[in-house]
Amino acid sequence: MKKGFLIISAVLLLIIRSAVADVIVLNSGERRTGLVIESPSDPDNVVFESSVGEMKIARNRIARIEKEALDASYMHISRDYFGRQNFAKAKEYADKAIGANPANEGALQLIDDINKTIADRAQNEIKEQVRQVDANIEKLGELIKEQKLTDAQKLLEQIERKELSTAQSETLHFLKVRLLYQQGMQAIDRLNPKGATEYFESALKLDPNNQEVFNQLLALWQNDPNMANKVISIYEERLKNNPGNIELSYTIADLYYKQRNLDKALPYLVNIKQNAKTADSILDSRLREALTSAHENAAATGQFEKAAEVYNTLLKLYPNEDPTILYFYQYSAQLATLSPDDITSHIALGDFCRERGLDNEALERYTFALEKDPKNQKALEGVKFYAQKDLAEINSAFTRKDYDTVIYKAGILARNFPNLSDVISQGNELKERAENELRRETRETKARALALARRGDEFYATAESHANALKSTERKTTFFVMNDKEEAKKFYRRAIDTWEAALSIDSSLGSRETEDLNTKIGDARARLFALSRVIPIATPKRTIRTESK
User: Does the structure show a pLDDT above 50 at 548?
Assistant: First the structure.
């Protein structure tokens, strides 16, 4: 075992010793620095290792071999590699030089130079890569601007494979969104709304707050009712992140309004109105409509508290609106909570209505309470208040000679207040007086109408006299003929106008049983028409009555 070990050690020593640094001088005079490795198995050649690799050199080409230190030979090779910028090999042989001679300062310095050069190279490469990426990003922006979108897409994909700085990533992110936007617009131009939608949606994922992109999506979705809710949800999410954005509120309100979803549009419209700095007629119109719908729907379903709340909002926003509706809702809400036996509360509710002009409702409460408790003084006072109010209106109507109103309201007064005999008595008295006045006026009117009818008869008779004169043989001159004709026409017109005035006063004069003015008017118009002809008209056989039967 020991003998075998000695043999192996001797072989290794021989190999190490044979690997010495050499300078080969060829017959041509060329010098090569490297390592000569003797090989007993190949006596015709030497194996020579240098910076160009291992090679065999025929012994007959070698003029001589000059021996030098092993580390020096390694240094020669390392420098050769370094000069050819093969830094890995240069460092490898510099390390071998140090391994052969740790005290070789040149090798240590060479390693430092190699490392520094490698570091500088790496830094320069990084700078060049950054510069190249910057140039490509700039070019990408130009391609997008020039609408060369296919080329822009290819360049974008190239850039994305590179390592990017934070600033480069941010710029590229912006340009990518811009490219997707332009691709979407191009798809629209090519009548490809589906493709456009995909581009815009991709852009929106990258930049959720991009209003320009979303507006285009909205334009694509506006005719698609299935997409409306999606649009609204996006806007509502944005509004959560920016609650003071009135423009977003207006957009959401507009979308809900177009869906005719006034309930959901309402809070947005209210918010806009409360924060509006200028008048907006469209906003006011929609807000009023939404508020009106809300309070009317609530009232229709018996939700009077909600109806009152909504209408109160309307009054706050539009103070000039009539508050009566609010009072009615408040009354209805209170009434729903009252017990039928709580007379005091019913009277109090009547007082509430009375103070706010809800006269019918107030009277209902007072009457209800009085039916429950006929001796209740407050209820009785409330009923009397409205009885006296109605009686005052009847008196006023009588004063202005509106007798029909007197008669009508006196009847209502008697029905509404059957237990107030003194009030009913006063109402009936006024009613009787009004009826007497109406009868008197009727008589006077009929007399006035009959007098007009008689006056019309007189005009007709005069017209007939002139018409008959057209046949007279004693009146043949043109002057007399034309005069009679014009006079006849004038009085026929007067007769017609006067009879029509009589009919407007008393239409009964038009019947055959009375003055038969309608027939007289028809006859006079026929005669007036006949006078428009040149040929004189004949004396009429029919005689018009001038006296009533």
Answer: no
Indicate the pLDDT class of residue 499, thresholds 50, 70 and 90: very high
2.30.30.100, 3.60.20.10, 3.10.20.90, 3.40.50.2300: which CATH number matches 2-114? 2.30.30.100
- Mean pLDDT for the stretch of residues 111-123: 82
Alpha-carbon distances of 31 from 37, 39, 222, 236, 511, rounded to whole Å: 17, 21, 86, 84, 153
Q: pTM surpassing 0.70?
A: no
Per-residue pLDDT band at 131 (split at 50, 70, 90): confident
Q: 432, 424 in Cβ contact below 8 A?
A: no
Q: 533 — phi, psi (to 5°)? A: -80, 160
Q: Which of 166, 179, 170 has the alpha carbon at shortest distance from 139?
A: 179
Return the SS3 of 339: coil
SS3 call for 47: strand
Extract the tokens encoding 446.
């009929």
User: What is 451-530's CATH number?
Assistant: 1.20.58
Distance CA(445)–CA(508), nearest Å, equals 12
The answer to which of 44-58, 268-282, 424-438 has the lowest mean pLDDT is 44-58
User: What is the distance between the alpha carbons of residues 2 and 23, in angstroms, rounded to a whole number?
Assistant: 39
Q: Which residue has the tokens 């009030």?
A: 423
